[in-house]
Design a protein that fits this description.
Elements lengths: L32 E5 L9 E4 L2 H8 L18 H11 L4 E5 L12 E6 L2 E8 L10 E5 L4 E6 L2 E6 L3 H11 L3 E5 L12 E4 L12 H10 L7 E4 L4 H17 L5 E5 L5 H8 L8 E5 L2 E4 L9 E4 L1 H13 L11 E2 L3 E2 L5 H9 L3 E5 L3 E3 L13 H18 L9 H20 L3 E9 L2 H5 L4 E8 L14
Parallel strand pairs: 1-3, 1-11, 11-12, 12-13, 13-18
Antiparallel strand pairs: 2-3, 4-5, 4-10, 5-9, 6-7, 7-8, 14-15, 14-17, 16-19, 18-19, 20-21
Helix pairs in contact: 1-2, 2-7, 4-5, 9-10
Length: 471
Amino acid sequence: MSETITEMILPGTYIDVRAEGLIGVGGISTGNIGVVGTANRGPVDEVRILSSYADALDTFGAYDAWPTNSADIPKALTLTRTLEQLFRGGASTVYAVRVGDFGAGGPQTRSYAVDDATGTIFTISASSPGTWANTLVLAFDAAANKLTATLGRQKEEFTGANAGELVQAISDGSRLIVVSSPPASADESRVPTAVTASAAVATNGEQIATTQIGNGLTLFAGEEVNIVAIGGFDAKAAAATVLAHLEATENDGKERIAVIGASSDDAAKIKSDDAAAVSNARVVLVAPGIVAEDAARAGTDKRVKLPAPYAAALVAGRLATLGVHVSLTNKDVAAIDVSTPYSRGIQKDLLQNRVLVLKKELGIRVLKGISTDTGPFRQISVRRTVDYAKAGVRIGSNPYIGRLNNSRVRAALKATLDGFLSQMILDEMLTGYTLDVSATRAQEIAGQAIVTMTLQPTFSIDFIKVIMNLQ
């Protein structure tokens, strides 16, 4: 029998169950990071969820050695290197998108023809586009009817008495190759004898523009992403694209913060080129760059100076580890060093221009956790706390859409929101709040329930003023 009474004709007991009192606010994500960048492996223009740097290497391959010539930096692969800094910072859940500018021909994927004495039976392709497949070696042992795929220390073997069995074995168990053109039904009984590789892949589409960045950001616009990072692109180049993404997602109720790097370590250029380009409560501008170890660099000296976009990734990863109400101020980050140490005078100047500065003091630390906003959301933690409150109020309120607009249901709505905001006080996100849920008769007729709340966010200690009296 239905739990909502719509009619009572037949004699019996009818029960109307009113469950509004059980509606609550579930879990809210706060540290999910979305990142776009270039790579030599992995799917293009698809979202992949990663939980560790090992996942990143397995999905998108290793990065190339950091260029010694500054003119070659735009050609460097950015995604895996950025992911390395994100996970080094402490990120645990990352939504990653590989992007590229491949031209009219699209992404290049290396292929391999499986032949017998009379010609090609079927075709194999590398599992994803990119130059990684240039080191993928396929060999066929005709005596054992065995195909071997080798990539570094990774090795896969497939056996089959004929083409049909071999195709099935590859489809069932390979992570390196896929069957891109299967054999015709009449050819499945043919017995392969050799495999021939196509020409090497020439590009990873690595020299991208903001068009590809914008397309990549759009792909996780609807995902539960809280923090955004851009692989290799600085504020001067990407600010407009990032701001457009933040505006669109906020309008869709998917609020998030972007952490981007300055285009230079030079304070004067940061002020004129970067700080002047953005003033937004959802954008954090980081400087200077960092010193990091380059796993792809030959020799014993693997330390390189990475520009500020990679420092921004490290800060984004650190931000993801903190509660929304906890400030980044004076928090340590896992960098070896900063690429350019700033004097106190320069630090002060950059802070006044809304730049989050990294300083060397008992390791590398955030001088002050600020956004580029000039208004009430200058502290990143205040912006994040308000976004958390918005998400919780939205989750708690949406189940009431379509329910009766009367005093009983409005009281239940208030109780739901009271429970959520009370928990924010217990979690020290708020120091207090007021809440009222009401509707006039005209508002009831219009289908409106009015929720009015005043929140008192918790602020961090940025300054300690000591008055010392001597006697």
